[in-house]
């Protein structure tokens, strides 16, 4: 789905529906715009430009409600039937995403992982159902997903609105700006992948070093062992 078409056809209501689905529905969430919808929605709230004009407070409310309610709905689905669904699933991409969520929860703790995960495309779609399936406490998830949802949705809308009101003809550069936002959103994921790869390489190096030390110590003991004489 194209974000501009959604905003032109449905306005702020389109923001609510799309963000709701993108925040917790595994079936369709991966194919829906998130970052690429909120930022242009904020841009359309700024006056003095052709095309549809949206109300800033309506977009902010719809973005907040859609992101919070969608994540909570996905969490409840995952909590009630997610474990069985994941056990029967043979989708490799889904399995990798769930494993990624589980790794983040164990490494950073529930609060940090849930809040920051909302800023990573694709990960935020599987984050809520996976958290429910992995047994994250309801209260903890609700608090931190609300914090992350508000920070994510409101910051993107307000960024679009600020640029729309301060930079003339900013809509001419909408596509490069959206591409920039997508790249920035992927940076935490890329940094984390690089860090995990580096840690894995260090672990392999330490294992090889330990094996080498054990080999040297074994050969030393063999050399020092008394030789049997016939």
TrEMBL record:
InterPro entries given in the database record: DedA-like, VTT_dom
Protein localization: Cell membrane
Membrane association type: Multi-pass membrane protein
Sequence segments annotated as region (Disordered): 198-230
Pfam family, one: VTT_dom
Primary location class: membrane
Domain VTT span(s) in chain numbering: 32-161
Transmembrane segments: 12-34, 54-78, 149-167, 173-191
Keywords for this protein: Cell membrane, Membrane, Transmembrane, Transmembrane helix
Compositionally biased region (Basic and acidic residues): 211-230
Assigned protein family: Belongs to the DedA family.
Protein name: DedA family protein
